[in-house]
Target: S9 family peptidase
Amino acid sequence: MKERISLEALAALPTVAGLNISHGGEQVAFYADWTGRFELYTLDLATRERRQVTDGQAPKAVRAGFVWSAEDSRLLFSRDHNGDERQAMFDLNLASGEVKALQHAPQSMDYTVAAHPDGQRLLVNSTRGGQMNVHVYDLTKEGESAWTALTTLPNATQAAAWSPDGMRLTLNTNESEDLRNTDGYVLNADGSDLRRVLSVREGSQDSVGEWHPDGKRVAASSDADGTHRVGLLTVETGKVQWLTSEGTEEEMGRFSPDGRWLSAVRNVDSTLTPVLYDTATGEARELKLPPGLALGTQFTQDGRMLFQFVTSTTRLEVLLYNLADDTSEVLLPAEYGEVDPADFVPGEYVKYPTADGLMVPAILYRPRELEAGKTYPALIHAHGGPTAQFFRGFDAQAQFLADRGYLVLCPNVRGSTGYGVTWRDANLLDWGGRDLADVAAGAAYLKSLPEVDGTRLGIFGGSYGGYLSYMAVVKYPDLFKVGVPIVGITDLPQLYEDNSRVMPQLGYYFRTIMGDPVENAELWRDRSAITHAADLKAHLLMMHGTNDPRCPINQARGFRDVLLANGREEGRDFEYVEFGDEGHGAGDIAGKTRSYRLMSDYLARRL
Model:
C-alpha cells in the first residue's frame, strides 16, 4: 500500500494546549510547540497579536496547568525535569520576560490552582507533606516561610477554587472508610472550619468546583445516580439543584462572568458537546456544533465562549463562539504543514459483542483504499487510565497506521469512562479480567471482518494500555502476533510500592481500584504480567522512559529480566528500548517522532 502520510511530517504538526483566559478577559495564554518544544504564548483577543513569552523555560511535556496572577501581569506555571513529574512552580513576568523559580521541595509535586484576589497568594495542590493536600503559597515571602498547609488529610485532597471574595475555597477529598467515596467541602482561607457540603451517598464520587459570582453557590457534580450529573449547590443550605437529565453523562465546567450560565460538557457515544445551563431557570442550551470534541470551554467577558474543537479527520483548532447568534470564528486554525488532511480516514463508531451479552463501544480506523479479496493486518490500541476513554477526535497514531495498511480498533473496554458508573466500575478488583476479556473479544471482532488477516493481529498502548498489552500477550498467548507496550505495567505489587513512595495520590488511587495489596496479594500476583512471562509467544517491542514516576522503569526492566531468565533472547524474541530523556511518554516533537518511527518500523518488520 502506497504511503500518503509522512510520519515525520505528521509528528511535527504543532499542538496547542492549556488555554486560559485572563481575569480581565483581554488575553488568552496557552502552550504551543511551534518551535519544536512547548513554550507559553499570549494572544490579545481584540488585536489578535500573538506573543511568545518563554524561551526554553516552559515544561517539555504539559502535565500541569498554569494560572494568571490576580492583576494579569504574570503567569504562574509548574514544570518538571525531563518527565520526572517533580512539578516546581515558576513566576513569569509578562512585561520583562523574567522567569523566577519559587521555593520547591525537591521530591514534591506542586500544582498551581488559582491566584488569590489579593494578588499575594496562590492556591496550590502539593505532595510536599506526603499525600496530596491543599497549600497556600505567599508570593511576598521567600523560602519555606512562603508555604502554609491548609489541609493535612491522609487521603488525596485537592482544592478547586477561591470564592470571589477570597475568604473561602472549595476542595474535594474523602474522610470515609470507603476509598471509592469522594465528597465536596468548603474551607476558610486560613485553613479553619473544614465543612463537608456535598455528600449524596456513601461510595459515590461527589465534588464541588468553581464559585458562582454571587459567592453563595458553587458548581457540583455527582455520580450517585449511575451517571455523572451537574448541579448548583447553595453552600449555606446544602441544597442542590441538579441540572443534568437522568441517564446523561456530563462534567461540570465554569460560570459566565455575569453568572447567567454554568457550562457543562455532555459525553455521548465518544463525542463531547458543550451545554449551558441557565443558573436562574435550569434550562439547558446546546451549542450548534457538528459531531466532535469540544475541549476546555471558557467564557470571555463579552458574551462569547472559547474552546478547542476537533474531529477524527480534522486537527484541533481554537474557536470563539458567539452566544448571541450561535456563530463561531476560528481564533487559532489547525495546522497541517506538508500533510494533506484529505488523506485522513474517519474513525467509525462501532460496537462489538463481549462476555455476558454486553457490547463494547469502540472506534475503528480502516485503510483508505482496501483491495478486493486482500486481507490486512490489524491492531488493537488499548487506552490509558483505566478511567479514561477513546473519543472521536484526531488520533495521529491511528492515522499513520491506517495509512500504512493496518486496521486499528480503539475499544472502550470495561473500566472506561463515558458510559456510566456500572461500566466504569466493571473492572474494580479485576484489572486484567473483564477488561482483558473485552480486548480478546475485540480481537475476535477484527478476525470476523473479511478484510482482516486473523494471523496478523497486534496490540499496543501506553500506561494502563501498556498494562493490557503486556497482559494480553501472556494471558492469551496464541491470540496476538506482536505486542507494543509503552510505559506499561507488569508488576502490580512493585508499582504500588513505588507509587506510594513517589506519587502517594496514585498509590491511593490504586487502592481504590484493586483493593488492599495484602488482603488481595494473590489477585495482584495473578494480574501481573511478570507472573506469566514464561507463557509469552508473541514478539514484543517494549518502550519506556527512564524518568517515569507513574510506571517506573523497573516495570519494563523486570519483565525483560524474567524473559531472559526463561531463555528468551533480545532481538529474536523481543526488542527493548529505553529513553533516558523521557518520563511517562514523549513530551516534545522530537520524542514523538522517534517513538512513531520505532513503532512503524517494528510493525513493518514483525507484522
